[in-house]
Design a protein that fits this description.
The complex is a heterodimer of chains A (about 240) and B (about 290). Chain A is built from five helices and eight strands, in the order βββαββαβαβαβα. Chain A is of the alpha/beta class and about 240 residues long. Chain A starts with 8 loop residues before the first strand and ends in a 12-residue tail after the last helix. In chain B, the strands form three sheets. A seven-stranded antiparallel sheet of chain B has the order 1-14-11-6-7-8-9, with helices on one face. Chain B has seven helices and 14 strands. Classes of the chains: A alpha/beta (about 240), B alpha+beta (about 290). At the A-B interface, loops of A face α7 of B.
């Protein structure tokens, strides 16, 4: 089932990855916060499919109640060995969370590729919007239960991509929040990844229980709201405590 | 046909803690093929430090908007006859007693787009930018001597004597309005022409400019804030500024606000001292495009 009208979308390639987003001539607001929710669907998360999609639905529903909802665009991504775009950058209010489907959790963890491609797509789309006079910032959530074991991109690639858009001044700020679920045994490695790649924050969300994932959805939507309110200030919002 | 607006506080009011006294807004006509956009610039001096001409500016634009929506028949004819303007001022007058008379002292510049003709109403000062389908651009600058414009609210109040006193005149007809016309065509030297008009040209229905809708790609109006960009002692001219504000990248939604903010934050290397407002209509790539 198609989620969105193809005629309204542009599709671009960034390296080995492809992303889509609403064409700028179809967008009405003066500015947008680009949100990407990139979630692990590897084999180790089998049995948590419904909780993961419930978490994403809860994020969308919470953001729709935000006073700045009309200034948000959301991209939904899943990753295992490959990075899969469930839907591209769309205005939040045009997204129907009921259309979100459960993933099939299988395969290895291309965490670096997922992080890099989310950043690269965000930068590329931000540049397109900026060229059309939109003011843009971004927040990316990468939610994983394990360390990388499959990627072609490196931590150095990610570190460079973190600052490329801001240095070129086509995006005001980018926050990347790495979230670990069921990931206590990888805490040291994920913390090292966050530090080495220059990511904004690492959050250990604990076990992938419905309660923890609901708490995570609340944290994610509040972080999105905070970054959206920071748009126009010249810098990112403060990272929130989980 | 798409329309939008933008307004922002100037450096002077930011420094002194005053609100933005410019306001702009627009609305699509009930017939689906007409549009009104308008702006107003409240007098900075009226009422002293407690003056609230920001309220008067908003009421004036909304009064025009309300009367535009209420018009039956040919709205351009109503503008030319001064009927829309009178109705708007009558509606504004209903607020006397709720706000001080001084708080109603504000200019008005508006665009009324009909099926074939587009009318610009100027009651005070400001600028008009016309981008023609032929590629030619025209800018019109309207200024009053000593930057003291005639405010339409004078018509309802016994305030005309203050205006005349300020201008040291006995007759509003004698107070000069300067209108500068600048034509810019690709491949040709810009052409400028200056006219002096008597103040009486704006009494009643205001100074009206008429254009053929089929010949225009976009039409924008500005408050006198467009004259307040000063860089290293030099006031930036319209020919340098206006293209930044009307070079729209897309015409959907808040396209005027996007372009204005991009121009102000990234292209024009100095702030505006006065409050700034603009409103514009883009008539589409072809003359037959309907109103949005």
């Amino acid at each position: 089932m198609k989620l969105f009208n193809d005629d309204d979308m542009l599709t671009r390639r960034v390296g080995n990855f492809q992303f889509s987003g609403v064409r700028p001539d179809k967008l009405g607001a003066p500015e947008y916060t680009l949100v990407t929710i990139t979630t692990d669907e590897t084999g180790s998360l089998q049995g948590f499919e419904s909780e993961l999609v419930a978490m994403k639905k809860a994020i969308i529903e919470a953001c729709r109640r935000d006073p700045r909802a009309e200034f948000l665009m959301v991209r939904d991504v899943w990753f295992a060995e490959q990075v899969r775009e469930a839907h591209g950058f769309n205005e939040l209010m045009s997204i129907d969370p009921a259309s979100y489907q459960e993933p099939t959790c299988t395969g290895m963890t291309a965490l670096y590729d997922a992080t890099y491609s989310s950043l690269a797509a965000t930068n590329e789309y931000a540049k397109t919007l900026r060229d059309n006079d939109f003011n843009v910032n971004a927040v990316i959530f990468v939610i994983t239960d394990g360390d990388d074991n499959q990627s072609s991109h490196t931590v150095a690639d990610i570190r460079a991509e973190m600052t490329r858009g801001v240095k070129a001044e086509f995006i005001e700020s980018v926050m990347v929040i790495l979230v670990g679920i069921n990931a206590q045994r990888f805490e040291a490695k994920l913390t090292a990844f966050k530090n080495d790649a220059g990511l904004t924050q690492y959050v250990d969300a604990g076990a992938a229980s419905p309660q923890n994932l609901a708490r995570l959805a609340n944290f994610v939507s509040k972080s999105i709201s905070s970054q959206s309110q920071a748009l126009g200030t010249g810098g990112p919002s403060q990272a929130l405590n989980f | 046909m798409n329309f939008d607006h933008y307004f922002a506080i100037g450096r002077a009011h930011q420094r002194t803690g005053l609100p933005c006294q410019d306001y702009a807004h627009g609305v699509s006509g009930r017939d689906g093929n007409s549009v009104f956009v308008g702006l107003s610039d409240g007098c900075s001096c009226a009422g002293g430090p407690k003056g609230e001409t920001d309220i008067g500016a908003r009421l004036l634009v909304r009064a025009f908007e309300t009367e535009f929506l209420a018009q039956q028949g040919d709205v351009i004819a109503a503008v030319v006859r001064g009927e829309l303007q009178k109705a708007a001022l009558d509606r504004l007058a209903a607020f006397r007693g709720m706000i001080a008379d001084d708080d109603m002292l504000a200019t008005f510049v508006g665009i009324v787009a009909g099926a074939d003709t587009v009318a610009v109403i100027v009651m005070g000062d400001g600028a008009i930018a016309i981008k023609e389908r032929s590629g030619r651009s025209r800018y019109i600058r309207i200024e009053w001597r000593n930057s003291m414009p005639y405010y339409p609210a004078y018509a309802m109040q016994d305030k005309l004597w203050t205006f005349l006193e300020a201008h040291e005149q006995n007759d509003v007809d004698a107070t000069p309005v300067t209108i500068e016309y600048l034509t810019v065509e690709p491949g040709r030297e810009p052409e400028s022409a200056i006219e002096k008009e008597r103040g009486a040209s704006q009494i009643g229905g205001g100074r009206i400019f008429l254009f053929s809708r089929a010949e225009i790609e976009s039409l924008a109006v500005f408050s006198d804030g467009i004259f307040s960009f000063v860089k290293e002692g030099r006031t930036l001219p319209l020919s340098e500024l206006v293209p930044r504000f009307v070079n729209f990248k897309g015409t959907v939604g808040r396209f005027v606000a996007r372009r204005a903010m991009a121009a102000l934050s990234r292209e024009i290397d100095c702030p505006h001292d006065d409050d700034f407002s603009m409103a514009a209509i883009h008539f589409g790539l072809s003359p037959e495009e309907p109103a949005c």
